[in-house]
Write a structure and sequence with these properties.
By secondary structure, the protein is an alpha+beta fold. It is 18% helix and 39% strand. Strands 1, 2, 3, 4, 6 and 7 form a six-stranded antiparallel β-sheet that branches. Strands 10, 11, 12, 13, 16 and 17 form a six-stranded antiparallel β-sheet that branches. Strands 15-14-18-19 form a four-stranded antiparallel β-sheet, with no helix packed on it.
């Protein structure tokens, strides 16, 4: 009997990838560990079991490293597992350069990249971004060292995002994420997003962030200035333009009321594009300008079905839970609907099919 073959068989049988480097390390710790007599029976089983433990522990350690790539709060907010986190970093959607940043620099000491700033007891540091060619979400760590709690109704009065010195967003927003994701009462994650006015490759562009005056109230958000000051960051953007796009057929009727009369507009479906972070649905609608202001909420039916059976759809009426409602910040015009997801990241390699206006399309 050959012990090396037994160990090889064990390593090949586990549900992980064991590369040659890892195999050699395991063999060095077992069959190659000096000259020895090889005993079978219980000793052989122990050695083979040890190889399996080494294999699994090595992979587990690697999985922990992968999970640590993302900011912990961002991973929880988007419910993104370690495998998808790694894929998002590898493909360029996720920029995690700030996850290990600890030194806070004054913005006046500007270098090529300034990803931290502090003013009047408030420190702001870049933690992570998620971006494709339709939008970006920026996650900042905000820390108070002046005794001010950051939970509840808090907001920066100015929230500006620039790309190479220009604004390209048609839909922007900002705010602290839910208190359940806080690091402490004095340290919290602040999110900004920008939805672009057209498909844009921001890779390599300089992102500039300007935050001004921290405001808020105990019971409601108002214009009371809690901490005055400015916080300015800038760095080179990382993003991905990769997506999946399919042609569509058929049409869908939207309903509205004009001058007291019910009217319909026919939308001829054209294309559907999806990335891990957004979707874009294009169409041509008749009489849109006449009817759009009076349209009832009757969005074009849309479902995304994953290979494991998970369904993302328009709303809970489609028999999905709130975590799988398909949508987010975006825009709707006479030619397209754009949505940038806010509570999940989709592994588009694991999409089985999409269903649009009742018709199934395989990706």
């Amino acid at each position: 009997m050959n012990l090396k073959k037994d160990i090889d068989k064990v390593m090949d049988s586990v549900d992980v990838t064991v590369d040659e480097c890892m195999k050699n390390k395991i063999l060095e710790r077992t069959t190659r560990a000096g000259k020895r007599k090889v005993f079978y029976g219980k000793t052989r089983i122990v050695v083979v079991a040890a190889a399996l433990v080494l294999c699994i522990s090595t992979v587990t350690a690697g999985a922990g490293r992968i999970s640590a790539l993302w900011n912990e709060a961002v991973a929880k907010i988007s419910k993104t597992n370690a495998k998808t986190q790694e894929k998002m970093v590898q493909k360029g959607y996720a920029d995690v350069r700030g996850t290990e940043q600890s030194d806070v620099k004054e913005t006046e000491q500007s270098a090529d990249d300034v990803i931290s700033a502090r003013n009047n007891g408030i420190s702001v540091s870049l933690k992570q971004t998620l971006a494709d060619r339709y939008g970006i979400r920026i996650y900042l760590d905000v820390k108070s060292t002046n005794g001010l709690k950051l939970t509840g109704n808090r907001l920066f009065e100015d929230n500006d995002i620039y790309f190479d010195g220009k604004k390209i967003g048609i839909n922007e927003g900002a705010g602290f994420v839910e208190d359940q994701y806080k690091i402490s009462d004095y340290e919290h994650i602040y999110e900004l997003y920008s939805i672009y006015n057209k498909a844009t490759d921001i890779e390599g562009k300089e992102i500039g962030i300007h935050l001004g005056n921290l405001i808020g109230g105990e019971k409601k958000l108002d214009d009371d200035v809690l901490v005055s000051g400015n916080w300015d960051l800038h760095w080179a953007a990382k993003s991905s333009t990769e997506s999946k796009k399919i042609p569509l057929s058929g049409s869908y009727q939207l309903k509205g009321t004009v001058a007291g009369k019910t009217r319909y507009t026919e939308c001829r479906l054209k294309t559907f594009e999806i990335s891990p972070l957004s979707f874009r649905l294009t169409y041509e609608c008749e009489d849109w300008n006449h009817i759009s202001k009076e349209l009832e909420y009757s969005a074009i039916p849309l479902k995304v079905v994953m290979k494991d059976g998970t369904v993302y759809a328009r709303g809970t009426k489609d028999k999905v839970d709130e975590d799988h409602v398909l949508g987010g910040a975006g825009s709707n015009t006479d030619t397209e609907e754009l949505s940038f997801f806010d509570e999940y990241v989709l592994d588009i390699d694991n999409i089985d099919y999409v269903e649009i206006a009742g018709t199934r399309y395989d990706l």
